[in-house]
Known about the structure:
alpha/beta, 14% strand
Amino acid sequence: xxxxxxxxxxxxxxxxxxxxxxxxxxxxxxxxxxxxxxxxxxxxxxxxxxxxxxxxxxxxxxxxxxxxxxxxxxxxxxxxxxxxxxxxxxxxxxxxxxxxxxxxxxxxxxxxxxxxxxxxxxxxxxxxxxxxxxxxxxxxxxxxxxxxxxxxxxxxxxxxxxxxxxxxxxxxxxxxxxxxxxx
Length: 183
């Protein structure tokens, strides 16, 4: 009879230890791998501006995912865009690569604008990431049309002031940025 009591106590102790282990596992904080912050750089057709922007982004320590009108034809680009997360950031370079006008008024009232693929990337990334995580940069031209009114556009300048505005926007979005690397 004593053996029975010892066995029952042993079994009860094992069940208690098992239950404690299950409870401890359930109350432990979940270990999730942090999402990698991706940096999208949407380029137009002006290679000089594209290179300047890519240089600024890499000097700040980012490896950008490059999107261009040419890459828009690749189905893999849309898979990449579909995987955008809330921690990602995008710079969209709006260049005067295209001309728009009413057929009856061309070329008299022609307006410069970005190519449609860049406008698509701007709209998609703004919808997916939010306005605070998209940084549209435009070329200041007399007849340049900004595709989406209401967005906070930054003017591109060859001196590079726009780079420091980008650094501020990145800091506001939670990125660690050393603006001194831009000098």
